[in-house]
Amino acid sequence: MRDPPPQFIEGPKYLCPCGKGSLVYYPFGLDDPLLRSATSIWICESEFKALALCQAGLAAVAIQGAQSGGDGNVRWNAKCEGRDERVLAQGLKRLAVADKTFIICFDSDVDTNGNVLAGLHQLGVLLVGESATVEVAYLPYEKNEEKLGIDDYLAVSSPDRECRLELLQDSVRPFNVAEALDWLEERWDDMDRKQQKLELGRVAKLARLLLKRHDFKRWQREAKKRLGGIDEDEIAKLAPPAEVLTAEAAYTNFGTAKLVEHCVPVLNKRFALLRAADGTERIFSVNARREVNLLHGDAPLRQVLHDHLKALFGQIPPDKLLGDTILLWKKECTRLAVEPEPFCFEGDDRLCFKRFDWQPTQAAYPAWSEFLDRLSDRETFMAYVWSCFEPKNMGRQYLWLRGEGQDGKSVVLGVLMAVFGPAATGITNSHLKGNQFVYSAFYGKRLAVYADCKNPRFGMMEIVRNLTSGDHVLVEYKGRTPFSYPLKTKLFVASNPKPEISSQNSDRSRMLYIEIAESRRKDDPTWRSRLMGELPGFLWMCRNVYQSLCSHHGDLPLTDTTRTLQEERAASFEQKFQDFFDENFVVAQGAKLTASIVSKRARAEHLSDNELSDFKQWMERTHGINYRRTNSERYYENLAEGRNELPLPPEAFPQVLRGPVR
């Protein structure tokens, strides 16, 4: 019986006692004379539609919906035993099926609803299997209109009802697609183009479901030959593959309740959503180790849903269903309160980009010792290495490791990158060009390595300050909304050339400059693997050194050796500025020197624009000379031109007497 009004959200329209299977409704009982004597019986959905047909003088029965033409009990028992068995509903079998013609007349949405089309196909196949003659009647239906049932179609005055009955009976065509093509050919020339496409689409969809692939191709060619103005490609567009036609059938009534039941838990298990305070959203994939990876679109979510639903229901889910599920999941899921950590050690259950499943343990580390013995400051190196693994460390320093080459620094830094895995990244020249996407490469990264730096001035670039300062930067991925994020990256720079650095405190305070001597052994293929194997012991010692040097978790204190090396690099870098200044200028309190004079002298000495900018800062820092700019002039305060030595007179040079050449 019908459940009026529906008591369930998106629940069933029909209820019947458990174990009764799919019931069939006979308007006046199974012994109705009209039903017993009729050679043609109409099958429709629901009792109201069957009553409307009986009032019009037609023999009719009703099933409980488009998918209820089969015996539900037999189907269920077969599925429990791992079999695929379908039989006609017992209520239809009682009608002496083999002696009659059955006209299937479902609602008008059979043209657009894959669930209804699949039900029509299944019922027709089951009736044919019982040796019945099967025909199909289609109700008129316009796109974007409400669906129409046969009871609505016949709910008009008597003269109009007779006309509509005549039109309805004229629309009846064979269920067999070969016979349906004959039916279509007879009426083809009397139809306009719109009607031709509609009727051909109806027949072609059934042909796609009923025929095997190669048989459908043959049917396509036959239809093209017999129907004018149509080609095979157009037929294929009217009838998508069977997988697509039946996909919608399995998911037509897949409402919110089923999305919550079947889909949202799958996404909750595999993904996490962060909605930041600025309104931006970030979706992360989550693996079994609770490691995350930032996603740049919903394609991975769609693929997971597609695979899950296809395995569960045996049909390809519609794309719209996947999109609706993702929107619902974003509303229903438990959102992250904070950004995932760059890394976590064993025992820490927080989401992170990299999880270490080991702990530092006391052990020997001879391979690392060979490397450490060649460093100018081994303790600073070890303490800085552990600062990468110490989440409390808020230091702003980076480590510059310089050697002449073939000294193992690239191998060591490569091992550290391998340990951090997805929480580490490398730097190349492309990162130095300053495009707006540069900081997206460092999102969620704890370690950054510039393995072969050719730019000695790299330490004075803005990107170094932004990576190591812990300040917020704007992270932007192509095609995505930018968001603010504090970078807390530990930076290693390896180079062959010596770095150039100014004496400015902001530059010197960030750098830990360490030099490495050449390795005596350069052909040990096992060195990298030994470094990896000794990591727990090496890091155990690094942690001890760090705790002794940096218990406050800030910047590492400079040793005398490292400070001396940095001062030498700063003095070397600024010596050319001192020489240039001494040759051309003097400090003169209250004096003003036009900026163009300084620029001309700098060009004569082949100073670049960057070097001239550094020279300005150097003069301000060391001599109190300030650059000023107004609307009318540019000048330097407290600066004057130096006195150039006068050229010596000719008599100051020894005279060389030349005699006549003989």
TrEMBL record:
Presence of keyword ATP-binding: yes
Superkingdom per UniProt: Bacteria
Native source organism of the sequence: Corallococcus interemptor
UniProt-recorded name of the protein: DUF3854 domain-containing protein
UniProt GO MF annotations: ATP binding
Domain SF3 helicase: 376-586
Coiled-coil stretches noted in the UniProt entry, renumbered to this chain: none
Keywords of the record: ATP-binding, Nucleotide-binding
